[in-house]
Amino acid sequence: MQNLALIAPLLILFPAVGAFINFVWGPKLNERASAIIGSVAAGATFFVALGLLTYLTGNFYQPAIVNPPLLDGWIRIPSVGREIPWQQRIDTLSVTMMMFVTFVGTLIHIYAAGYMHGDKRFSRFFAYLNMFLAFMLILVSGNNLLMMFVGWEGVGVCSYLLIGFWWDKPNGEGIKNSNAARKAFIANRVGDFGVLLALFLTFWTFGSLDFFKPGEVANPAHYGHLVHEGEASHAEEATTAEGESHGEEAVPAEGEAHGEETTAAEGEGHGEEVMAATESHGEEVMAATEPEYVDNAHLTYNELGIFGKAEARIHLADGETLDAGDGTQISRTVVIGPWTADIQTVITLIVLFMLLGAAGKSAQIPLFVWLPDAMAGPTPVSALIHAATMVTAGVYMMVRSNTFFYNAPEASLVVTIIGGTTALVAGFIAMGQWDIKRVLAYSTVSQLGFMVAAVGIGAYGAAIFHMMTHAFFKALLFLGSGSVIHGMEHGHHHLHGHDDHGGHDDHGHDSHGHDDKHGHDDKHTAAHAVEEKFDPQDMRNMGGLRSKMPITYVTYLIGTLALAGIFPFAGFWSKDEILADSWFAGVFDGKIGGYIAFALLIAAAFMTAFYMWRQIEMVFHGEARHEAAKHAPESVWQMTVPLIILAVFSVFIGFINIPSGIGFFSLGLDGVFGLHTLTNWLEYSVLHAHAGEFNGLVALIATVLGFAAIFLANRIYGGNKALTNDGRDPLQANAATGPFWALANARMYWDETYQRLFIGPFQRISQLLADIDWNFWHDYVHDSVITRGFNGAAKLLSEPVDQGLIDGTVNGVGRLVKWFSGLLRRAQTGYVRVYAVALLVGVVAVIVLMLLPVLRG
Amino acid sequence: MTVEVILFMIVGSITIITAALMLMSDNAVHSALFLIINFMGVAFLYLMLEAPFLAMVQIAVYAGAIMVLFLFVIMLLGAEKTGAGAHLRRFRWMAPVAIGLAVIFIISVGWALTSGKIDTQAPPAVDAQVRFVHAAALPAAVSAASEPVVSDLPTDRVFVLLVNGEVADESFAYGDVSDMLSVTSGAAVISLREAADGADLVTTTLELASNSVQTVVLAGDEAISFYAVPQSDVSGLTVFNAYAPLPAVALGDLKGELSLERRVLPVGADDVPFGTYTEPLVYPADFPNWIVFLPGGLDVTRPVVAGETPATVEVASDQDLLNNVVLRVSKFLPELRYGDNTLIILSAERLPDGSTRPLATRFDPVVVEGFGSPIRVGRTLFTDYLLPFQLVALLLLASMVGVIVITYRGDHVPKPSRETRRKVARPLTSVITSQTGTDLNDSAPQLPEHAEQPAGD
Amino acid sequence: MVQTEAYVILSMVLFAIGTLGVLLRRNAIIVFMSVELMLNAANLALVAFSRQWQGVDGQLFTFFVMTVAAAEVAVGLALIVAIFRTKQSINIDELHTMEG
What we know:
The structure holds three protein chains of three kinds.
Chain A: H1 8-25, H2 31-58, E1 64-66, E2 75-77, E3 82-84, E4 88-90, H3 92-115, H4 122-141, H5 145-163, H6 173-206, H7 220-223, H8 255-261, H9 265-268, H10 306-314, E5 322-323, E6 329-330, E7 333-336, E8 339-342, H11 343-361, H12 370-373, H13 379-388, H14 392-400, H15 402-406, H16 409-430, H17 436-457, H18 460-496, H19 545-548, H20 550-564, H21 570-587, H22 592-619, H23 627-630, H24 637-652, H25 669-673, H26 677-683, H27 696-717, H28 730-733, H29 738-745, H30 750-824, H31 832-856
Antiparallel strand pairs in A: 1-4, 2-3, 5-6, 7-8
Helix pairs in contact in A: 1-2, 1-4, 2-3, 2-4, 3-4, 3-13, 3-18, 3-24, 4-5, 5-6, 6-11, 11-14, 11-16, 13-18, 14-17, 14-18, 16-17, 16-22, 17-18, 17-21, 17-22, 18-20, 18-21, 18-24, 20-22, 20-24, 21-22, 21-27, 22-27
Chain B: H1 3-24, H2 28-48, H3 52-77, H4 94-114, E1 128-134, E2 159-163, E3 166-172, E4 181-183, E5 186-193, E6 200-208, E7 213-219, E8 225-230, E9 236-241, E10 248-253, E11 263-273, E12 290-293, E13 299-301, E14 311-315, H5 318-324, E15 325-328, H6 329-332, E16 341-350, E17 356-363, H7 374-383, H8 386-407, H9 428-436
Parallel strand pairs in B: 1-7, 9-16
Antiparallel strand pairs in B: 1-4, 2-3, 2-5, 5-6, 7-8, 10-11, 10-12, 11-14, 12-15, 13-14, 16-17
Helix pairs in contact in B: 1-2, 2-3
Chain C: H1 4-24, H2 28-53, H3 57-87
Helix pairs in contact in C: 1-2, 2-3
């Protein structure tokens, strides 16, 4: 069991191999093979995650740090003794993330097999999906911030690739898609800047980026439950890849006690951590095996991860120092170059930077503008990435760094405000959208705001809980919308018998990457160069699909109810926990953020229920407003089966974290699922997660508001009044609400503001620089100065210098020789006498010369 | 004015005159003949310069071969007259230049010569030829400077002879005569030792003249020493007195037998002390009958005039003579000849019973080659100058081949025309005709009109 | 003994005469003979000095000179013969075709 954690690298390997195969041999494979490879890779990853879940449950939730095989470290800086290893952390939080990411991911792979049928780059799509999965898993399984950042960037890349998947659609659609992809990438980049700064600060302050080092306990208090008096075990906390397991886990004789922990879910294969009868948290004492270490007392400061170090350091008094373990003293002061700062300040800064990163990745104010545009990508992409997984990365980062957030109350307040505001703003905008997917996109932004606000008020467990539930029902909603769109298109085809959309080689009219320059969210995009502009995603064209697409309708309804927070669906539990936690934070802990969060989130919850029911009314109820809707068929099984599965989950997933004090409202399921199961599970990794209490008042208010919103929406939109006679929204037509509705429809002019403030000037500056570059550098300097100068110099060198001087010299030498030899040849007269004279003159000269000393005396 | 100088002047002037005549003669044959006479003169000069071999070679090669060749070619080409062709105008400057050149040359060299600055170099010393004779028969006390006295020197003892420190003879016993050794002329240290690296028993330093032939005799009785006897150039009899018992001897010519009448005995050398040698005594024409006698025993009458008439000695009686005769040389050396240059060493011979009696040993002269003799030249030629000799031989061979190649006319078809008539200035017949006034024949001998084989092929 | 200088002076005079012959006569044969005269003069000087210095080397050198002179005469006369065949004249002033 110890070594089961060693399968962790497979998490990354399987999807990577799947991506590789689809990349390299994709064009040669047929659709079926590509889809199978992709889905099998994702499914295998799910089973690996399941295995890791098994490992954890069998190992007393003690986390594992897995080093990859064959790789020896990652980044090493020996001169300062720093190291950033490539390690994977298998603990409850990461396994949680892994489970639902892989599960939803597998379902979406299967869905995409049906959705992308006929696409000419089918295999490439699956390669991208697998690649995304690989990076996402790196993100959640990394043991240090840098690995997380690798995954962070990787999913950003995959998001870019997938959003712009139909970049080659004609009539300008392709341009819109690639613009949307670029927008997503760039917005994410701004967030990455924040993450990087947080990373640098962390590294500088704490000397490493590891979340937890081997032997470290994330939540010592939580482990106290597990200590059996007097019986020690040899269970290791950290199993390294070298497999140094110092002992085996003594198999407890009480198999049932162990079995109580064992997840029955292993047999089911869902990603549920069904922890049967673990009321043991507070009361029972586990038998037999127990962790070796239950706190971090045995570790020195240097042997702690960043969170342990932060905790140790933040609790130092002024001037107090702590021995780092190698003799150096650690104090509250952090030295950053010429500046010094208190650790509190530094942590606040780190938190704020992380907030910026989360704002980018998880689409918060001010960087959320990419998410609606990201709907240009195919629906499975929207479902997977922009509903369930990638956007949750920011929340994951924040929850993982809960120590930082917990110890930076001011920054947490900012987080709360940002999250709440985002939830409200997005909810408001969603109320005025026509596009079915756009509504869901803004809904996602709004729900992410919920999660971020939960993080802000310290409800880390609640945030993760809501993330999980949201993943399921949002994916369900997206896939359902995809099914609706599919049906609309098929109905349109059936109706007209020809594809009336230029380049309809794919069924994706999801490319609604609208031009940023237009201020409208109209379905009348200029790219419809056809005689009839038909947008299958426009809700105004829909209606009455309840009877045409029943399965879709039922699942969609379940998803809507879950999202709206209606008891007993999943959203109720998670949203209610956040609301309750914010209420408690405000009332009992005195945090102003709690009040703010409560107010904003309540309002947002109201709006959520409203716009979702509006959508139900417009899409499924009433009469069909377009011929296509009249003939929309139900979708294929590849699409409906995942819908059903997700719908089932959306119903029951909420019960994994039943708050205490719920009483009979738990419908008796607390006996089945236990109380705070998820939070307890998470607490092993998340230090400051706390179980939520049930507050009946809050729940009542939330439920009442939810029903009220649904009732209101029904009143406004129900009964075939989804659109006024002139095709306007009833709220639009109403004089009192019209301006507000128009504002919502105009998406609060957010993109236009950005365009005016940032993008426009930027483009003008770059145009200016381009002009300078072209006119001055290219035309003048290049052509005039360099080219002509060079030509002139070459001419100079060739004519007078080369031809005149050098050739003249060389030829001159020849001529000189010729002249000289002409002179000399006269010496050869041919007469022997002359030669004899010459010879004898020479002889006499030599003799006289030799006798000269004698002659001279 | 010695004969040599007169001879030189005569021959020299002949040489110069014939050279000039050669130069100025019109007829090429005359020039050749003058040159031959020139060469003869030069050969004579070589003889005067102690180069007899070279003189002969000069005559044989130059006069005999080269000039003959010249004459052959002159005759062949018919080039007696050189009048063909006018003096070219372009060479008018040649005569002054040539004369100027010659004058400069003569003046400069003559001046250098006559200023007497030509170095004279002492001729290199030639090794002396030395032979060693062990003639010390009597035991004697040998005393070297710091060496112990050798008590006796028996005749059968063998010694080591060292010349200038190098072993010359390893077994030098009584009566031994070594081979002719070349010893560097000048002072030579001759020593005798028991063993090669032992102590010197006898050491003598002798002065050996360059290019001389010496006989070094180990002689002595009580004091043994080496005595050098040079070979004389004059023929005659040289006697070296190595007879230890007697301090001096005399030499006389006993013509015929003694008679009891008063005799006058010509004396060749009247006093030859021990360790010295006589002047070469000229033999009388008839068979000499030399005796060695004690000078004190007989009265020797000195001649009145020095040098002309030999000394004589009056012998009172035969018995007187017989009492004083040491030995009769003719008894020992009957084959003495007139004209030989002979050395006789008079030594003592040890008898087995210990007594001694006189002994005369004869040494024939060793011929030393003269400077310039063929032997000397040949010896040096074939040892030191062998390589140039071979090269020159090669050169001769090459030139012989070259000559044939140059003059070879393989495809020559002689022109059957009259232009190949020889240019003979005056055919012999015309000469005869002009001198005798008659024609020998009707027609002068002509070359055949249609000569199939013209001359000169 | 006659002094070496006398011999050398004699040799010098002969050499000068030979030089004059080489330069002034037009007949090739006479020129050749003058060359032989010059060689002889040199030989004489050599032998004189050899006698003075009592070294046989001078005489040997003379020997070589004589040999070489003989070879040279043979070749030279052969050349003259060959030339005469073509030009029918041995006037050296008529032989100047190899001019520059």
